[in-house]
Write a structure and sequence with these properties.
The protein is mainly alpha-helical. The protein has 20 helices and no strands.
Length: 414
Amino acid sequence: MSVQHSVIALPAATDGALALINHESILDRCWQTIDLHPDRLGIAAQLIDEEYRRSHFLADASALDRLLTLSETLLLEGAEVGEAYVLAAQIASLVHKFDQATQYLVQAKKLGASAHNLLRQQLSIDHAIGHNWKDVFDTRLRLSVQSPNLQNLVALGALYAEMGLYQEAEDSYLRAIAEDREHSPFSLAWACFQLGVLYGETLEPAQPATAQYWYEQALSYMPPYTHARVHLAELHLDAGRFDTALNLLLPIQDCEDPEVSWRLAQLYEHKGEAREASHHLARTQKSFERVLDRHELAFADHAVDFYLQEGNNPEKALQLALLNLDNRATLRAFELSHEAALACRQQRLAQSLADRAASQWGHLPAFERSDLSLVAIPPLNSAHSAPLNSELSSATNASATPTSQNSTSSFSTT
């Protein structure tokens, strides 16, 4: 089914530049407080949210380093406090150390951490690694009905998109924007960005004009939003609008995100400026090496794409793809690994990956649209597919009548 572009009235928000100034002020105050009072878990929780904003919106990889330092402090000062382990689990999840995060949650439960906080972090982990997906879906749906706020609805929309239920994903994202009551440019930019990804990367065929619209709305809320600039520049690059793409990338060319210099290398290559292209390609290579050295699991999936393309190192791409798959066996991770195996001419491994993907994800609509479905050998016991899809349909229809409970939310780290 083709998702149709829906237009809604976008809510007003605090000016993005002012919000960034406030963010930096809060960040400084939180670190000052933690330095003096490392046992203040409420401040630590706020610090995690603020540092993740730097990582996600400004592509500040050093924010992840600071978070890991905070985790060490939390576990040192709160060795017998369950909530300290919950926060450490959240940080471990942010750098994609999901096994470690799970271990922290086990210890948090032993020490009597809040059931609500344990559920929230376990849900985040299971969602990220593609584990226990039916329970994740049921819980995400229930939370969006009980508290139809932006955070819960965007998380549900992301899950719908991963499952291949694209109309439901769009509906959930649009409801998230409509339900917003915080007027935070961070949260609204995040929701718009998710819609851009849905139309620009998830849908087949993509709808670049609609993706462009939503990336532009994300930037209207938060102009320095690095990921939105990179994705939007890529659309303009594909359409041959080189100057527009360049204007989006130049203001962020010094950031730590390797994809910025990578897109600049591609852009200059298209413009026939070989020297500039070579310079930015070398920068990209060094940037990926640097972030992989510091946070390999967090950047492995993005690096796979680079080493399969301009990075010209399919063996390294396969190594990283399999590492990523071992860490989080999502459908996307299987697709990356399959592509890398084919690039390395490892046909037997590629077939094995496709078959494993079919066994784990063959019951979802997303798999039916995946290239893996064309080569995978269906598992012998596939009778569960129809009932599961029926359950999804029934649950999706049930979500159309939310309760009137109100809940505030902050930017989600899921």
